[in-house]
Amino acid sequence: MTEEFFRGYTITHILDCLADPAKIRVIAAAERLVDDIFPYLNAILPNASYSPVANTLTLKREYRLITLYPHVAVMAKIDDEDDALATLAWLRDLINDAYARREEITPCYEHRQMVGFLDVYRLLPATDCKACGEATCLAFAVGLVEGRHGLADCPSLDTAHRERLASLLGQTAASQ
Fold first, then answer.
1. What does the pLDDT read at residue 1?
2. DSSP secondary structure code for residue 27 in this structure
3. In angstroms, how far is the first alpha carbon of the chain from the final one?
4. What is the CATH number assigned to the segment(s) 117-169?
5. Angle value at C-alpha 23, between 137 and 97, nearest 5 degrees
6. Residue 165 has pLDDT above 80, yes or no
7. Domain boundaries, the chain
8. For 9-100, which CATH superfamily applies?
């Protein structure tokens, strides 16, 4: 077994979520500085937002919004404390996996923005055909960004737009 780079986070604050009153916001302290791994995570996470100037990495896990700072993680739209602990364990594993594979990963130091649902919506056919299971293409776009849908769920999507969306979302056009 390889040496563990990062043992994890400790929850320091549980607050009301500003984005969704039914959820919580969580602040957790890192047991060590983790910013050295941000460029590697930026390289492997297709829809992360990396800011080398601010030294932050923001990502989504389903509907949860997570911002990593060198010494702390701030999470919004967390269901409850158990969800927070599970998300922090997922982050620990993600960080350790990137660290273990760092020789295989070309770090990306470029500033990147997260893809929003309106960016995705602009590339959808806007027919509101409901074949994807959603009432509208806008709802489908939100589902794509949150990872609840794949590109294959939209039968009206042409090849060019499917490939562009796959690139934006970090999916494969054929399998998703």
1. 43
2. E
3. 33
4. 1.10.15.40
5. 80
6. yes
7. 9-100, 117-169
8. TATA-Binding Protein (3.30.310.10)
**How far, in Å, CA of 87 to CA of 75, rounded?**
9
Q: Which helix (H) or strand (E) holds 93?
A: helix 81-100
Q: Say which residue the tokens 């990147």 belong to.
A: 112
- Spatial neighbors of 29 by CB under 8 A, at least 6 apart, are 9, 10, 12, 71, 72
- Whole-angstrom CA distances from 19 to 64, 65, 76, 135, 162 are 10, 10, 7, 23, 30
Residue type, 57: L
Which candidate, 135, 133, 172, 168, places its Cα nearest to that of 149? 133
| pLDDT beyond 60 at 17 | yes
* Average pLDDT for 33-40: 97
Query: Max CA-CA distance within the chain?
Result: 52
Helix axes 137-146, 159-169, angle to 10 degrees: 40
- DSSP secondary structure code for residue 17 in this structure: -
Which residues pair with residue 16 across a beta bridge?
24
Centre a 10 Å sphere on the Cβ of residue 137 and count the other Cβ atoms it contains. Answer: 21
d(CA 122, CA 8): 38
Per-residue confidence band for 111, with pLDDT thresholds at 50, 70 and 90: confident
